[in-house]
Structures are given as C-alpha cells and as structure tokens.
Amino acid sequence: MEKIRMTTPLIEMDGDEMTRIIWKMIKDDLLLPFIDLKTIYYDLGLKNRDATGDQVTLEAAKATEQYGVAVKCATITPNRARMEEYHLKALYKSPNATLRSALDGTVFRGPIIVRGIDPYVRTWKKPIMLARHAYGDVYKNSEIKIGGAGKAELVYTEKDTGIEHRQLIHDFAGPGIVQGIHNTERSIRSFARTCFQYALDQKMDLWFSTKDTISKTYDGTFKEIFEEVYRKEYKDKYEAAGITYFYTLIDDAVARVIRSKGGFVWALKNYDGDVMSDMLATAFGSLAMMTSTLVSPHGAYEYEAAHGTVQRHYYKYLKGEKESTNSVATIFAWTGALKKRGELDENEALVHFAKSLEEATIETIESGKMTGDLAAITTLPNVTTLNTEEFILAIRDTLTAKLA
Ligand code: NAP
Ligand code: MG
What we know:
The protein is of the alpha/beta class and 404 residues long. It is 44% helix and 20% strand. The model has no long low-confidence stretch (mean pLDDT 95).
C-alpha cells in the first residue's frame, strides 16, 4: 500500500511514563505503516525539560503558534516527590499551563462516545464539549485571614490620576476571611472569540452560563462581552450555519445539561469549568475516553488526552507486568491533529485516514475487545480484556481491513 503523504509537519510533543510508552506504540503500529508521517519533534519528557531548563516547552509552544497544529503526550507536572525522583534542578511549571499562557488558549474537553460504554446520564446521546476559561478568578486570588475586628475594603487606584475608588467589603466584628479576585477584558474577550469560533467549526450550539444575577458587575461583564462578540462578529455566521448561542444562569444550565441529549459546547468561567469538567468526564464513563484541545484565538490547535501519565501502570510495566492501559484518548489526540492538519492543507487522504482510525478504534471496542478499565464498566456481553499492546494491535487489524 502506498503511504499517505503530508505537506506540512505536525508539532509533536513527547511526554512521560506510561503515556510515553503508548505514544511510541501508536506511532509504530497505527501511524507509520500507513502515513509518511512528518512531525517536528519536541521531547517534553521531564528529563529533557530539566536538561533544557524547560526551554523545550517554550520552543514547542512557539512552533505550535507558527505551524498551527500540535499533538501532545501527557507529561508529569513536577511536585516535591518528582523533584527527588528525577533529581530536578527546579520545580518547573506544568507544561500545559506554559502552553496555555503562551498561546493565550482555551481548553475544550470532550468525550469519545462508544456503544456499550454508557453515560451515567441516560439522556446523553451526543458529546458535550466543555470550554473552561483558564485565566484569573480564584486561581489568581489574593486572600487574607482576618484576625479580629476591623474594616476590609476594595481599593483601586487609577494609574494616570492617582484617584482612589473604595468600597467596603465588610466591617468585621471578629475574626474572618477575605478574598480578592480579578479578570481582564482582554482575556474574557479572547475566551469568548475562541468559544464562538470553536462551536462554529464543530457546527454545535454554544451555551454560556455565569451567576450574573448575584454578581452583577463581575459575572455581568462576562455576559456582556459574550453578547457583544456574538452580536458584532458571529450572529450572521451562526444563523447561516443553523446553530444558536444560548446564555443562561449557571444553576439553570446545570439542570438543563442533565436533561439534554448533548451535542453542544458549554463555555464556563474558570472555577465552574474546573468542577464541571470532572463531573462530565466521570458521568460520560471514563477519564481514559476524554480528549482535550487547546485552541488559541489566532487559530492554533494543540490536541491531547485529558488524563495524566498513568504512573501506577508505568511502575507495573517497569517490573515487567502486563498492564492494560487505555490508549483511546491518545489515539484521538493524534487523529484530531491529523484531521485538522489535513483540513488546513486540503489533504483529503489524510483526513480520511484519521477518520478511519477513529472508526477502527470504536469498532474494535464495540466488537468486545477492550482494555481493563472499559471491561469493568461495559454493558456489552462477551468481552475480551486485552493488555496495552494487544489492544493497539487489535485496532491495527480493524484498520488494515477497513483500508484494504
Ligand atoms: P492519571 O495519570 O490520569 O491516572 C490516574 C488513574 O486513573 C490511573 O491510576 C488509572 O486508574 C486511571 N487512568 C487514567 N488514565 C488511564 C488510562 N489511559 N487507562 C487506564 N486507566 C487510566 O493521573 P495521576 O496518576 O494522578 O497523575 C500521574 C501524572 O500525570 C502526574 O505526574 C500528573 O502531574 C500528570 N498529569 C498530566 C496531565 C497532562 O499532561 N495533561 C494531566 C493530568 C495529570 P487505576 O490505577 O485504578 O487503573
Ligand atoms: Mg478539576
């Protein structure tokens, strides 16, 4: 069979532990036999991040902005324990946080839906994609423990005039706590644009929700900016595409999401998105079946699995045990990136290949062949539990038959 050609390379970011093992298997067994794979390779494994003083992450981010499409393996976010384990020179930032801030990006998470791995919510038939604003609010807060009686105030001093604006938060009679949070118009605006554009690309409705009835200025500003961006830049495009923008209060949205069939993008503020993404991932069945896409307002895309490096499985693998790690989300990170690259380059064959690999993965599971995490929750009869490599090879068999 002639291999499919690529015109523009993908930015490839390798990672750590079990997902690094899976990464190589996917390339060797599912990609290289079929496509003349072109990538620009960055090793974001913790050893190389340490060796380069984390420069490699910044270079990968720059290349992603330049080439437009990247695929990333899960990586270790160092903590004290990792610092000792890897004898690190410094406690580096999470690569995902570095990429997000370098690209000013928004993260979209969505489930991979397979017959036999049923969502806990019976009405959900289509994916719900969740977009989390990844700047500010409680994640960049300033907080004080109040020791006793006293006045806590908000003070803003204008840079040009020195004029002070003051507002009482609370006149404390005794001990308590106080917190200050912020956001910027610029960040909210680029979040709004990215959400409107992503939903348009996916031909899905966009939902946005905050608590603007209680937080009239803070959450109210989010609501106004979304409305303005919609009215000025997207209303006509949405009407032409037959999709809608829908704003509702966060509590109403939660109730509607549970009753819905799915099939929309749900944009949320930072904290709401943090909490709801874990709820959605669990309710859809498995963290190993969630993908994650970082989209920049300038149109750069980075695809990855939502789960981590599956450390526990890696230590078993190092001891020579046959673990059963689910590679589906990492496979879909590759297919997402290949499809996007194919669309941008008008490379039909590449798009077709990526879709075929997705279908082959789903059909393999639906035929009863799956990894242990799925075997434990499936409603399908006659299931065969495969180990990590056997599962990837089973997908290759399905794919080979499909492409023949
Ligand atoms: P994790 O890698 O997501 O794994 C947690 C547990 O979830 C696993 O032990 C396993 O459960 C199950 N699991 C997750 N993915 C699976 C898969 N593909 N197949 C089968 N089971 C899967 O989270 P973690 O162990 O807390 O974190 C490990 C490292 O990943 C940390 O260093 C963290 O910093 C990093 N991390 C990276 C990213 C990223 O790069 N985007 C995201 C999150 C975490 P059982 O053990 O019960 O089988
Ligand atoms: Mg969370």
